[in-house]
């Protein structure tokens, strides 16, 4: 009995001292002109007076701390042998809907958020929050980790929480993220994921563990022989390479000429079906910095393109996707198209039209500034004037549907300049590489003149008919009038 009273007295003194320390820290935080407004500081104080289920703390003679929920009556025991690492739960908030705090808004509204907040637990006199998130799409969450958006989210929560340390847990018990903050400097100083002290360590040891085990058991010479490509990617004097494992590509490093180390998976979340056709490690500009280039082809082999990955010592990151996925027709290539020393993302839009147009778009591989060039794949490698009325009508409609320089060709076919502003209303779009589905019927034709009906089935399944009147002028058929429905 005396022992229990003595222990209770000691804990009471500790709590009083701890409370005083917390008050001093909070007072200092309030005095700082933080980027977080005074309103946020006031809301942070609301952590000390939350609306939830209060937890009663008791100590028994066996020197164990018991926490008992006032709602459920369940208890959890902690040993006091390692009391420096044990946190004491003081408040649990299940009614998150009515809990008001900036962190809740961040989790709900941030573009980087990866889950729904369903519970909050407050430890150490309500100064250390644990946020429980319901992560519905685990694959999307892992992809978000790999992109680096995860760290943006971590910093947003830290800012909303006044740069107090905190923790995030998944309700499925798959992830536990401990975030340590520097309150004075208002920074995140450390982030441990499931006990791993670095994000890379977590991804390699947990997510890609099957490959790491596979790589460990493979003979060195066999790995070297199966590499898709190799080269000193990061300039450390060691050879890196790309290896295919069960359809996924991995970056590995030659450690000492005897074994390879897993540096991470080349995450591929591109939704259009494709296959890998090659890989390369090479420099793409005059800086000499090297990148990973993965060539791909559409499942139906109607389109080709590539991915570019960067590696900065952390994990491979996809920085460029150049692939005609919108239509699954066309080709994309990576080379120095304009001879300026930097390789370009080059996309070819090849049309099966009368003129055999090819629109070429290109830009430096890390630039959004796109240049465009028009070329012809016909026998003359240039524009030519069609010889029949049907070809003239078809070429005019095709040019009218193109937004590039080819669109200006439509005026070549007009006899009356007043027709330049007419809007045809055909449903042909600029991404149609195959021949457009039109039926052209001759209704009347005399010497040097003719009337033709153009029939098209609209996207809604309706039949649309237009009439074109053509006349010969200087040996060429020209459009003299258009009657639209």
DSSP strand (E) fraction?
A: 35-45%
Q: Specify the number of helices.
A: 9
Shape: elongated
Chain oligomer state: single chain
Class inferred from helices and paired strands: alpha+beta
Poorly predicted parts: 1-84, 428-432
Could you provide a short overview of the structure?
With 485 residues, the chain is α+β, with helices and mostly antiparallel strands. The chain has nine helices and 25 strands. The strands form four sheets. A nine-stranded mixed β-sheet has the order 3-2-1-4-5-6-7-8-9. Strands 14, 15, 16, 17, 18, 19, 20 and 21 form an eight-stranded mixed β-sheet that branches. Strands 10-11-12-13 form a four-stranded antiparallel β-sheet.
Characteristic key phrases:
elongated; 36% strand; alpha+beta; disordered N terminus; 22% helix; nine-stranded mixed sheet; eight-stranded mixed sheet
Topology:
Layout: H1 2-31, H2 38-45, E1 53-59, E2 64-69, E3 75-79, E4 89-93, H3 102-109, E5 116-123, E6 128-134, H4 138-147, H5 149-160, E7 166-170, E8 176-182, E9 187-193, H6 199-207, H7 209-217, H8 220-226, E10 229-231, E11 240-245, E12 248-254, E13 260-265, E14 274-283, E15 290-298, E16 303-310, E17 317-322, E18 330-335, E19 344-350, E20 357-364, E21 371-376, H9 389-400, E22 439-446, E23 449-457, E24 463-473, E25 476-483
Parallel strand pairs: 6-7, 16-18
Antiparallel strand pairs: 1-2, 1-4, 2-3, 4-5, 5-6, 7-8, 8-9, 10-11, 11-12, 12-13, 14-15, 15-16, 16-17, 18-19, 19-20, 20-21, 22-23, 23-24, 24-25
Helix pairs in contact: 3-5
């Amino acid at each position: 009995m005396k022992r229990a009273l003595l222990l209770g007295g000691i804990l009471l003194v500790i709590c009083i001292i701890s409370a005083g320390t917390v008050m001093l820290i909070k007072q200092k935080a309030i005095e700082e002109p933080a980027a977080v407004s005074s309103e946020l500081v006031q809301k942070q104080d609301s952590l000390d007076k939350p609306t939830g289920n209060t937890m009663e703390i008791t100590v028994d003679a066996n020197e164990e701390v018991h926490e008992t929920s006032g709602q459920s009556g369940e208890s959890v025991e902690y040993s006091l042998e390692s009391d420096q690492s044990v946190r004491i739960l003081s408040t649990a908030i299940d009614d998150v809907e009515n809990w008001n705090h900036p962190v809740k808004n961040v989790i709900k509204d941030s573009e980087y958020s990866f889950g729904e907040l369903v519970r909050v637990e407050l430890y150490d006199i309500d100064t250390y929050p644990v946020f429980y998130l319901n992560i519905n799409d685990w694959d999307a969450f892992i992809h978000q980790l790999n992109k680096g958006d995860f760290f943006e989210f971590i910093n947003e929560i830290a800012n909303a929480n006044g740069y107090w340390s905190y923790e995030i847990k998944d309700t499925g018990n798959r992830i536990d993220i401990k975030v340590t903050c520097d309150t004075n400097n208002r920074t995140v100083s450390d982030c441990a994921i499931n006990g791993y002290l670095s994000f890379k360590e977590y991804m390699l040891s947990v997510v890609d563990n099957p490959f790491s085990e596979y790589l460990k058991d493979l003979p060195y010479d066999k790995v070297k022989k199966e590499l898709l490509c190799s080269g000193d990617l990061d300039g450390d004097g060691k050879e890196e390479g790309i290896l295919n494992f069960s359809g996924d590509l991995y970056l590995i490093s030659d450690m000492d000429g005897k074994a390879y180390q897993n540096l991470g998976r080349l995450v591929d979340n591109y939704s259009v079906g494709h296959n890998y056709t090659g890989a390369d490690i090479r420099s793409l500009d005059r800086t000499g910095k090297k990148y990973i280039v993965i060539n791909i082809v559409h499942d139906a082999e109607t389109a080709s393109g590539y991915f570019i990955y960067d590696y900065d010592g952390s994990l491979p990151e996809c920085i460029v996707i150049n692939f005609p996925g919108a239509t699954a027709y066309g080709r994309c290539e990576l080379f120095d198209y304009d001879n300026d020393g930097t390789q370009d993302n080059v996309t070819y839009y090849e049309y099966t039209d009368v003129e055999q147009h090819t629109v070429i778009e290109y830009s430096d591989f890390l630039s959004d500034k796109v240049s465009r060039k028009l070329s012809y794949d016909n026998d003359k490698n240039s524009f030519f004037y069609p010889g029949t009325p049907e070809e003239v009508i078809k070429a005019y409609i095709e040019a009218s549907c193109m937004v590039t320089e080819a669109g200006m060709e439509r005026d070549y076919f007009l006899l009356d300049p007043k027709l330049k502003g007419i809007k045809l209303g055909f449903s042909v779009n600029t991404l149609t590489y195959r021949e457009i589905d039109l039926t052209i019927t001759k209704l009347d034709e005399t010497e040097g003149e003719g009337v033709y009906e153009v029939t098209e089935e609209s996207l809604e399944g309706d039949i649309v008919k237009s009439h074109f009147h053509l006349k010969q002028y200087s040996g060429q058929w020209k459009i003299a009038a258009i009657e639209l429905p």
